[in-house]
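Lecture notes, continued. The same structure-token format from the folding unit now serves as the input rather than the output. Read the line below as a description of shape only.
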């Protein structure tokens, strides 16, 4: 199949759009190396690695990073279990209200984050639940489940039911069918969904603001530093870490889901 070359103006628009999206990120990276510690001056008066050592030596950054990592890992684990079970029920079963259940599962990521945050804070207050690590996890799990669910339900719908029936007809138990037939076909979708859920949880701000109490995840720490800066370039160093930590899972999820339009038995 022969493709026509795009006109120059379309290439220029595409390049301008990419520049508009990514130039601010590049500036964040650049100012992590600046010698100016109080304001952003263009061009930077000099370049230094001093702020990386300063960031490494600050215990408040390590505490916030460790909290963000723990929250993201646990929220992702919860999302993998709940999202996969919901996807299996919706894709492989027929029951009254199935579409309504699907809508309710997806709804949290469609709502503005501030609405979700206020709703969760009100629920925790009514139930007299103190803010803790677990309130942050529950807040993040509400939208992480959606990411896993969307990946899993799409893959479940492409897996032929004939594979499962054939496995059972040949004498396999449900556990053996799950292990040797279902999981191999949906594994990349679950892994991609888990990676995306981890990235979303790690850099989440709005819902965390309403569910963290006095705790500070890394994005909350960055927000507070921007309001009351101590060493402004240190914030840029931490921002670089956040970009890298969230970019790698997204890149991995992209590669995992690329070329998965067909699965075993989908054409049977």
């Amino acid at each position: 199949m022969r493709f026509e070359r795009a006109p120059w103006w379309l290439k220029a628009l595409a390049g301008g759009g990419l520049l508009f999206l990514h130039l601010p990120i590049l500036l964040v990276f650049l100012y992590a190396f600046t010698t100016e510690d109080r304001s952003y001056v263009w061009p930077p008066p000099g370049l230094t690695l001093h702020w990386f050592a300063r960031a490494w030596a600050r215990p408040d950054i390590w505490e916030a990073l460790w909290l963000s990592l723990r929250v993201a890992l646990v929220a992702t684990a919860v999302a993998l279990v709940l999202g996969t079970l919901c996807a299996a029920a919706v894709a492989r079963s027929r029951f009254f209200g199935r579409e309504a259940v699907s809508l309710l599962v997806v709804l949290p990521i469609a709502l503005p984050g501030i609405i979700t945050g206020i709703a969760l804070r009100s629920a925790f207050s009514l139930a007299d639940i103190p803010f803790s690590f677990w309130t942050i996890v529950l807040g993040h799990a509400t939208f992480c489940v959606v990411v896993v669910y969307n990946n899993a339900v799409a893959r479940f719908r492409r897996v032929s039911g004939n594979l499962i029936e054939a496995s059972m007809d040949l004498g396999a138990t449900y556990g053996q069918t799950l292990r040797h037939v279902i999981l191999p076909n949906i594994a990349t979708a679950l892994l991609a969904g888990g990676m995306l859920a981890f990235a979303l949880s790690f850099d989440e701000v709005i819902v965390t603001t309403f569910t963290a109490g006095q705790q500070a995840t890394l994005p909350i720490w960055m927000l507070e530093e921007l309001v009351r800066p101590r060493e402004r370039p240190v914030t840029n160093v931490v921002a670089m870490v956040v970009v890298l930590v969230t970019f790698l899972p997204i890149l991995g999820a992209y590669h995992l889901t690329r070329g998965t339009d067909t699965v075993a038995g989908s054409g049977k």
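Point for the exam: The CA atoms of residues 131 and 195 lie 26 Å apart.
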